[in-house]
Amino acid sequence: MAPASTLPTVQLALLSPLVGAGIRALLASVGVRVVEEGGAVLVVDDAWLGRGAELAEAGAVVAVGSVAWAGVLPEVASGGWAALPADATPAELLAGVLGASAGLVVLPPTLLPPPPLSAEEDEEENLPLSAGVTLTPRERDVLALLAEGLSNKRAARELGVTESTVKFHVQAVYSKLGVQSRAGAVTRGIQLGLLSV
């Protein structure tokens, strides 16, 4: 944790005195000083959802409560901002305060967009669906074991065949499905109805 002297000051603008007391205690537990006015970071709750103009004047904002904040703050915040759930931990609250005061955006992992696909995954994702794909019964077995996350060696033991036989079937599945990875094969198998989720 950073020394208290280097931490930004925080001003609370929370409707509920109980929530305010809880957040004040959480911030104090990580060494953040709460001031009555002029704090470097303004902490708000859902009562501020319709008051965008006032938030624009605040600079750095940490909103605690509704996930709707992740859609509102990009349009109204003039500085860094954080959208945190109502049950944010002291560490999450500190990360939100530090990130917002540094001009960054802080979101919980559940609100982050999915990572971009690699070139290989993107090609596999954009393949047209083809109902004409047929797998042999053994290839279907191998695909099902891939979906379970089994290695070639474990799949071979499960099927009572050699590891090289499994590798042969895996390559045949990749070829028929037009993919180059296990994840791609499983995704494509689900898309084509060859695997159930």
TrEMBL record:
SMART domains the record matches: HTH_LUXR
Record keyword Membrane present: no
Domain HTH luxR-type, chain residue ranges per copy: 128-193
One Pfam family hit: GerE
SUPFAM superfamilies: C-terminal effector domain of the bipartite response regulators (SSF46894)
Keywords: DNA-binding, Transcription, Transcription regulation
Tagged with keyword Transcription regulation: yes
UniProt name for this protein: HTH-type transcriptional regulator MalT
Organism: Deinococcus aluminii
Species classification: Bacteria, Thermotogati, Deinococcota, Deinococci, Deinococcales
